[in-house]
Amino acid sequence: MDATSSPARVLAVVGPAVDRERVVDALSPLSVSVAGSAEAVVRRAEAERVDCVVLATDHLADIEAVHGAIAVPLVVVVPPDGDLSAAAARDAGAADVVPVVDSNLFERLPERVESAVAWRRRGAAAASKITEDLKEQAIDEAPVGITVADCSLPDRPLVYVNEAFETMTGYSADAALGRNCRYLQGPNTDPERVAELRRAIEAEESASVELLNYRANGETFWNRVDVAPLSGPDGEVTHYVGFQTDITERVRAEAAAERYAARVDEERARLQTLVEHIEGLLADVTSALVRAESRRELEAAVCDRVTAAGSFDCAWVGHCDLSPAVIVPNERAGTDAGFLDDLEIDRSDPDDPTARAAQTRTVQSAAVGEEGADAETVVPFDSAIAVPLVHRDTLYGVLTVYTDAAELDDEVRVVFGTLGRAVGAAIDAFESRRSLLSDERLELEIEVRDETQPLVRLAVAGECALDYEGAVSHDDGTLSLFVSTDPPTDGLADDKFESPGVAGVTRLPRGDGVGLYEVVFDAGSLTHLVADAGGRLRGLEADRDGCRFTAVVPDRGAGRALLDDLSAAAAGVELRAVRERSAPPRTGRGFAADVNAALTDRQQTALQLAHLGGFFEWPHAVTGDELAAAMDVSRATFHQHLRAAQRKLVAGFFEEGTR
């Protein structure tokens, strides 16, 4: 067997810092012997004619002593917790270094030994095979662009380019040779980096720069250019070799990462500013709560303060304490708020943050720009945060705020939640105070879509619509509701209509031919529920689709109770609108003044004379002729004035009763 291919003979020297058995086991495929100490290596290595020495140690002096005394390769095993580094071991003469790590590099130790032995045996022969042709082939087929420029020719033209350069730049060898490679530069190439490259070449030094270059078709790419001078036998620089590497993907990835990092930093700074602004809002809103004199003024002030500093663009408050089916803006502030004119949010919509805030009574946020673009109402902002205005068990409303921020973090939602509770408590205080001191009344427009309700059944039976004309409560608990029909009909008598809860339906005489009916309800009707809540009807209509009526109640507490009672008694109860009405208590003197204002002088005189003269007693204390004579008018004229006065007086009385 040729000596160059015979098995390697190894002499192992293992110090106390390394597990001897592991080293020996790892080398077992080879012909291995073990020396007791580093001092015995020289004698043993020469006597046994070993091909390699394996030294396991953590002392640099051991390596220096062994390397200087042997002529064969030295492979060093370095323990993990020692002070000896792999670099230091190589500098001391180790042909290879095997560190002891968790990946168990002991398994690779035989390969390292065989590699060191093979290089010693056949390295010179292998190096001699590297011919000029092989070098040229390696350069031609290298995966990076390689160029050679001739410094002896004017403008240092390229005299060689490899295939990778042609592929990367799109320039063929014929188009590339004979020209300075600056043709790869273009309008957006950085002149400072070009100047840096030029200065290195003029100083006959190496350089490395990254340039935006242009391919033959005009497409840009990022090129890392490494150049180095080549000298002739006399030491003069004759050529420059250049290596071009396409780093476009790396540069683009770095640029994208930088843009993302910048956006993250910008968003973080914006959110921090946002949080600081919201925290400042708490103090501002608290002062607004103290100064506000009404709920409306309070809600307007909150919207103004939220949008004042510019972190948020638009804000509005919608009322929820009377459980409306839709939430609409009551107070608003900010820019681009025109879309709020037509905004109606279905309270049951699970995709809308305002509806979710009302349902869950928790702060909700969402991106709304893209969703709003497809909706009936376009929202001209990117994000919304909806804040429930809650105190104890009552949800008074939702504050909805819009911003162009892409996302709102948890800290913003927490601060807004605190703001919502503060506003809810202030609204509760206003409502409590108003119920005690204010003369204002609440007007509720309510729709009931329930085909089983008596008025709806009555409208269906008569094929007509019903309009409210008045109501009277009776001592026995029943209630008379007076309705007119459109078109007029006489088909609603007792014998033609029956319904649970209805004690009777009676056609009443009316001089203008309009159908007029008295509907008597037993206790528990919708009209009774309005009265039980301390309210009064002000307008009612019914048809086959349902009934709609306006109820005036003393305050929101009574309104909530009425809506709860109606929802328990009928299906399809929906609050369509809420209005606050100023309704100061009417005094007898005020009522008299209003009636007097409606009477003409003649009508007032006729009414006064009839009252004072005992005309309204029975039998009459005075005749109409006598009163007509007192007024110096005919008997017919007197009765005409008196009836007109009586009609206005009675009308005023019943209109007062509907207030």
What does this structure look like?
This protein has 659 residues and is an alpha+beta fold. It has five domains: 9-128, Rossmann fold, CATH 3.40.50.2300; 135-246, Beta-Lactamase (2-Layer Sandwich); 269-437, Beta-Lactamase; 442-582, no CATH class; 588-657, Arc Repressor Mutant, subunit A, CATH 1.10.10. Helices cover 41% and strands 25% of the residues. Strand 16 and strand 17 (394-403) form a beta hairpin.
Kindly provide the radius of gyration, computed on alpha-carbon positions and rounded to a whole number of angstroms. Answer: 51 Å
**Percentage of residues in strands:** 25-35%
Share of helix among residues? 40-55%
The low-confidence runs, each spanning 5 or more residues with pLDDT under 50, are: none
CATH-defined fold name of the largest domain: Beta-Lactamase
- Gross CATH architecture of the largest domain: 2-Layer Sandwich
* Strand tally: 25
Question: How would you classify the quaternary structure?
Answer: single chain
Give the overall average pLDDT.
Answer: 81
**How far is it from the N-terminal to the C-terminal residue, by CA?**
124 Å
Structural class: alpha+beta
Provide keyphrases for this structure.
Rossmann fold, Beta-Lactamase, transcription regulation, BAT_GAF/HTH-assoc, chromophore, 25% strand, 5 domains, eight-stranded antiparallel beta sheet, 41% helix, GAF-like_dom_sf, five-stranded parallel beta sheet, 659 residues
